[in-house]
Amino acid sequence: MSFAYSSIGLGLSIAKVVGGGHVRTSLTGVEAGVDVTGPEKVWRTFQAIGDIAFAYAYSNVLIEIQDTLKSSPPENKVMKRASLIGILTTTMFYMLCGILGYAAFGNDAPGNFLTGFGFYEPFWLMDFANICIAIHLIGAYQVFCQPIFGFVEKWSQGKWTNSQFINGEHALNIPFCGTFYVNFFRVVWRTTYVIITALIAMVFPFFNDFLGLIGSLSFWPLTVYFPIEMYIKQSKMKKYSFTWTWLKILSWACLIVSIIAAAGSIQGLSQSLKKYQPFKAQQ
């Protein structure tokens, strides 16, 4: 799905660039004092760093993916290769989307690559791209929510061990499909969670700001700190050795990046709230 809608966006950007028409661009993006104020440009840069951190915070699903691998060849070798190929591929698409999107729309390019860029024709192609986005997000939502669902359900089962509502499995016979077992607590809890998160998303449509904030809060501890510390512990690395030193420097540098990104995202949210209208998308 990502490959499909990203390729569509790239193709439309290339078509717009080839079709002519001059857009205002510069080496450093939007111009301070012309498009935005100096402080606003700095805050937007910090927010963009948070968006990038969110895009690379794949640690939430890394273990989930590794659990599906066979034991031969070893999982660590497979995951090293898969991570390398995956990061290189996504980086290539991110860079192409950013560069070609900016070349096509210049300093007026909004954050949403497809729905905000002014791509309205051909309609069928845009509809297909948005269907791909919907399918992608529905699947990704399920994957990212599974740890939350599992934690709450396991904690509840341990807390109320005698509750039939929480622990009971009820057989449901569906014609031509067989028998399925339904847990009422699981149905109610997961449905409620989805409804609440959907309402929050509609009430507070600050897409880029929230992405940057989530990315900044999760990037350093999950994607940088814990993996580095686990690697140091597992490999029994000597303290103050060359590798230990540069890994620590990398960790602290990423912490600073995360703090900067969080500050930018919080500032962006505060600015968005000033012109906030419920259930309306922010421009």
Automatic annotation (TrEMBL):
Q: Where is the Amino acid transporter transmembrane domain?
A: 8-269
Where exactly are the transmembrane stretches of this chain?
82-103, 123-144, 187-204, 210-228, 249-269
Q: Which GO terms describe its biological process?
A: amino acid transport; auxin-activated signaling pathway
Membrane topology type = Multi-pass membrane protein
Which molecular function terms from Gene Ontology are attached?
A: symporter activity
Q: Which PANTHER family match?
A: OS05G0424000 PROTEIN-RELATED
Q: What is the stated purpose of this protein? A: Carrier protein involved in proton-driven auxin influx. Mediates the formation of auxin gradient from developing leaves (site of auxin biosynthesis) to tips by contributing to the loading of auxin in vascular tissues and facilitating acropetal (base to tip) auxin transport within inner tissues of the root apex, and basipetal (tip to base) auxin transport within outer tissues of the root apex. May be involved in lateral roots and nodules formation.
**Source taxonomy:** Eukaryota, Viridiplantae, Streptophyta, Embryophyta, Tracheophyta
What is the protein named? Amino acid transporter transmembrane domain-containing protein
Q: Which GO terms describe its cellular component?
A: endomembrane system; plasma membrane
Record's subcellular location: Cell membrane; Endomembrane system
Q: Which family does it belong to?
A: Belongs to the amino acid/polyamine transporter 2 family. Amino acid/auxin permease (AAAP) (TC 2.A.18.1) subfamily.
Q: What is its main location?
A: membrane
- Keywords for this entry? Amino-acid transport, Auxin signaling pathway, Cell membrane, Membrane, Symport, Transmembrane, Transmembrane helix, Transport
Give a yes or no for keyword Nucleotide-binding in this entry: no
Question: Is Zinc given among the entry's keywords?
Answer: no
Q: Which Pfam families does this chain map to?
A: Aa_trans
